[in-house]
Write a structure and sequence with these properties.
The structure holds 2 protein chains of 2 kinds.
Chain A: H1 18-36, H2 38-57, H3 68-87, H4 90-98, H5 101-107, H6 110-140, H7 147-172, H8 178-206, H9 214-238
Helix pairs in contact in A: 1-6, 2-3, 2-6, 3-6, 3-7, 3-8, 4-7, 6-7, 6-9, 7-8, 7-9, 8-9
Chain B: E1 2-13, E2 16-27, E3 31-35, H1 42-50, E4 57-64, E5 67-68, E6 78-81, H2 93-103, H3 109-119, H4 135-147, E7 153-157, H5 165-178, E8 183-187, H6 191-194, E9 199-202
Parallel strand pairs in B: 3-8, 3-9, 6-7, 7-8
Antiparallel strand pairs in B: 1-2, 1-4, 4-5
The chains are: A mainly alpha, B alpha/beta.
Chain lengths: ~240, ~200
């Protein structure tokens, strides 16, 4: 027997805020990710492999002590940035490849989609940071004299990384050769942030007077600019 | 009261002309079938009506209770099913529906999701992951997703594809019920589906 049922039609009330929509999209992405672990596996595998390779090749004693703060900061941000580039494009590419992007376009407002995907990418970056940063510190015997400044730098840096890569991921989702395009477009956009974060982490390790925390301020400004610009531009990227 | 007005719509990709000068106006209760050869642009026309593709010329206007519907608000007035659409394979049928209900801000999401799944004959499979659905069940779920917010404009691109006779009956019921709510536009080459409509627009002529 068909299970059809006549439903009495009423005028439905629709009331959603951008935040509700964004959280729904973030929650759905997280739920899918927990079931497939595609992006998380890609990011963590890349990060862990690179970290192990670096720690074996360089270790904690092959670099002169005076050069450690700078070189360790460089290595840490190279690992974080390239690990992020290996998986963060999936947030939009997956929608395009699975054919779910049109239904999402018809259901959610563009800005809410951007915010939801940004939250998802930030969650992945959070997981990456929690695993990689302490492991890096342990394996490389990374001495940090200003831990609070260092932690704030890592957090703001990851926020910037997430903001920068999310809008690029949206832009390349429909292109062919997405992987290469994602890296090529992301690097110029992320370079100012990377340089700032490397400088900040170096200062935190050495223990310079970090009064005013200039690198953190630059990173926060970067995050605000990227998110604001992305919210304005995303509609143009999202719609045909 | 819902009205869809299409004025001199045209679409070309590069120098390839798909169609041009298409105009029609539909009011609540109307069902229009769009037919034509493969590649005539039936699906593209539906995507233009949904706002997923920009027309090369002309305009699509919608009016609800006599007032024009802004482009940004149109998604609330449109439900669409198309072969190219997919839902989230790693979620269950109910989770898919709950996601769309939340995103659309439906006030009584949970119960309404189950009601809608029941309407398309999927209530017994609500907890099953969509990856395990047959193609016919996926088509039913797409129909449920399109009906969830009871849109005044229902766009059905080959709605009967992959459906068994029970599914076809459900599509017939949906189209009949939509007459009391708004407008239906069907794109299909199936004579049976075109027969649901009051008017037929052949893109190949």
């Amino acid at each position: 027997m068909p299970q059809t049922k006549s439903v009495k039609r009423t005028t439905r009330t629709e009331s959603s805020t951008y935040l509700n929509e964004a959280i729904a999209i973030w929650f759905r992405d997280m739920r899918s990710e927990f079931r497939t672990r595609y992006a998380l596996n890609a990011i963590l595998m890349f990060a862990v492999t690179t970290l192990i390779a670096v720690s074996f090749a360089i270790g904690s004693f092959r670099i002169d002590e005076s050069e450690r703060p700078f070189l360790y900061a460089v290595l840490l941000w190279i690992i974080l940035t390239f690990s992020a580039l290996s998986g963060l494009s999936r947030s939009f590419v997956k929608e395009e490849e699975a054919g779910t992007i049109d239904v999402l376009k018809l259901s959610a407002r563009p800005q809410a989609v951007f915010l939801g995907k940004l939250l998802f990418n930030l969650s992945l970056l959070g997981a990456l940071g929690v695993v990689i940063v302490p492991t890096f510190i342990l394996l490389m015997a990374y001495q940090i004299n200003f831990p609070v400044f260092f932690t704030t730098m890592i957090i703001t840096g990851c926020l910037g990384l997430g903001a920068g890569t999310t809008i690029i991921a949206a832009m390349i989702a429909r292109a062919s050769g997405r992987g290469a395009l994602f890296s090529v477009l992301s690097l110029p956009l992320l370079l100012p942030l990377m340089i700032t974060c490397i400088k900040g982490c170096e200062r935190a390790a050495i223990g310079y007077d970090s009064a005013g925390w200039p690198e953190v301020k630059i990173a926060v400004a970067y995050v605000i600019i990227m998110i604001t610009m992305s919210l304005f531009l995303f509609s143009l990227v999202w719609e045909e | 009261m819902f009205t869809l007005r299409v004025s001199d719509i045209g679409k070309h990709y590069g120098e390839t002309l798909l169609f041009r000068n298409i105009s029609f106006e539909l009011h609540k209760g109307d069902v229009l079938a769009i037919t034509g050869w493969n590649g005539a642009g039936k699906s593209t026309l539906l995507r233009i009506l949904a706002g997923l593709v920009r027309p090369s010329a002309g305009a699509v206007e919608m009016f609800f209770n006599g007032k024009p519907v802004e482009k940004e608000s149109r998604r609330r007035f449109i439900g669409m099913v198309a072969p190219a659409f997919s839902l989230y394979d790693e979620l269950t049928g109910l989770e898919n529906m709950e996601f769309f209900a939340t995103v659309r801000g439906l006030s009584d999401g949970g119960d309404h999701c189950l009601d809608t799944l029941h309407r398309v004959g999927l209530s017994d499979h609500a907890g099953k992951t969509c990856r395990d659905y047959s193609s016919g069940m996926k088509q039913r779920l797409k129909l449920a997703q399109a009906l969830l917010h009871e849109p005044p404009l229902l766009l059905l691109d080959e709605p009967g594809s992959n459906l068994d006779s029970r599914g076809i009956t459900i599509v017939e019921e949906i189209i009949a019920e939509q007459r009391t709510l708004g407008v239906t536009v069907i794109a299909s080459n199936e004579k049976r589906e075109a027969d649901y409509a009051d008017r037929v627009f052949n893109l190949s002529e």
